[in-house]
Amino acid sequence: MILHIDMDAFYAAIEQRDHPELRGRPVVVGGSSGRGVVAAASYEARRFGIHSAMPGRRALQLCPEVVFVKSRIDHYAAIGKQVREIFLRYTPLVQPLSLDEAFLDVTGSERLFGSAAKIGREIKAAIKIELGLTASVGVAPIKFVAKIASDLQKPDGFVEVGSQSVQSFLDPLPVSRLWGVGRVGQERLHRMGLRTIGDLRVRELDDLKRSFGSWGEHLWKLANGIDERKVVPDRNAKQIGHERTFHEDLTDETMLIAVVSFLSEQVSRRLRRNKRQTRCVSIKYRRDDFRTFARSETLPRATDSTDEIFRVAIALLTEMRSREPRPVRLLGVSLSSLTDRDAPRQMSLFDLAENETSQREVDKVVDGLRDAMGDQAVYRATSHDWIKKKR
Question: Which of 42, 163, 255, 296 is the most buried (most CB within 10 A)?
Fold first, then answer.
């Protein structure tokens, strides 16, 4: 069985825990003026419509009494490590998705600790007693169902879906609950009369493949409770990826470049956070007709440089646009052939070591600023159009 554990309003909850005068008040972690953005919002702030990545000024307009707190990313990371240590008491198979959420495979732990549900409740209790924080837990036999379950009763929720109950759990849920279904995809599914996951489940697979290509097959599998992905601990991760489904299909080349720039920043930051390097950069590209394509390039040597990853990703995008110039509904950038950052590597006689060191220092400073002030505090100029559109 799989657990998906998601800390509730993690950064904001830590601030409310550490500062009792903030409890019960709308709290935002992040800046309130200039280019400040919301890194996290307490549940009290969310009731006013405040959410992460929102400009701080907009949050203040929505809730004039909101309290802004400066981000303490090192502190949050230290507490995230304590949370992970609680997970590891029960299983070594922990796949962190971020500081505040993870998948756990407890299949081999049930003889020692009891059922998956018992383990999930014990972990929730340990987090509350030892750290003074709450988490929401989903328990299910497959990953994506566990993730849906953890989101249904937040905050401090617990939802278990047994092996025999997966289909009855999924069928009444809206199709928007499926991974990869954004607003545009939802509207197209609705036009076909597919409003619930159950509607999708009973539709013929060939019909969905004709309408949506490989994406249709992906949706059909999820709707039928098929998710073969395993829980992969960080140290064994074979790929790091990030993708974005657009509310409206994109045709503007400058905007597409901005999206690839943004995605390259996201994946390279995760790569460095995991102390890994990559030798293969890939682009995933879905057209407006839902046909999906992918291209990859193998690098001459491993890197964790945002600049180098972006350069390769843009070259792949340019090649794909020349072949497939139709409107785009999804773009993704992923990194594979991962190695440990500190592993020995063969250096080229012509490596510009000084420039490489300089770029690594730039990446380190940028990572630190974004950790402290939010993803939109500093970013590449090439990402600007997409960041501006997101706001």
Answer: 42
Is 288 annotated in some ligand binding site? no
Mean pLDDT of 303-311: 93
Residues 301-320, mean pLDDT to the nearest whole number: 93
Single out the residue of 187, 186, 192 nearest to residue 204, CA to CA: 192
Question: Helix (H, G, I), strand (E, B), or coil: what is residue 242?
Answer: strand
pLDDT at 133 over 70: yes
Classify domain 174-223 at the CATH topology level: DNA polymerase; domain 1 (1.10.150)
What φ, ψ does residue 22 adopt, rounded to 5°?
-90, -10
With respect to CATH, is domain 10-73 assigned 3.40.1170.60? yes
Which of these ranges, 89-98, 203-212, 340-349, has the smallest mean pLDDT?
Answer: 340-349
Q: For the CA atoms of 59, 61, 65, 71, what is the dihedral angle to 10 degrees? A: 30
State residue 61's pLDDT score: 92
Q: For 2-7+78-166, CATH number?
A: 3.30.70.270
Looking at CATH, the fold of the domain delimited by 237-390 is given as Dna Ligase; domain 1 (3.30.1490)
- The DSSP secondary-structure symbol of 313 reads H
Q: Look at the block and give the residue holding tokens 């159009």.
A: 385
pLDDT exceeds 80 at position 206: yes
Instruction: Render the burial of 210-233: b for 16+ CB within 10 Å, e for the rest.
Output: ebbbebbebbbebbbbebeeebeb
pLDDT tier for residue 378 given thresholds of 50, 70 and 90? low
CA 141/CA 161 separation, integer angstroms: 8
Smallest CA-to-CA distance from 55 within 26, 30, 22, 72 is with 30
Answer whether residue 374 shows pLDDT above 60: no
**Does 100 carry a binding-site annotation?**
yes
101 catalytic? Reply is: yes
Which of 21, 44, 65, 101 does the annotation list as catalytic? Answer: 101
Q: Where in the chain is the domain with CATH 1.10.150.20?
A: 174-223
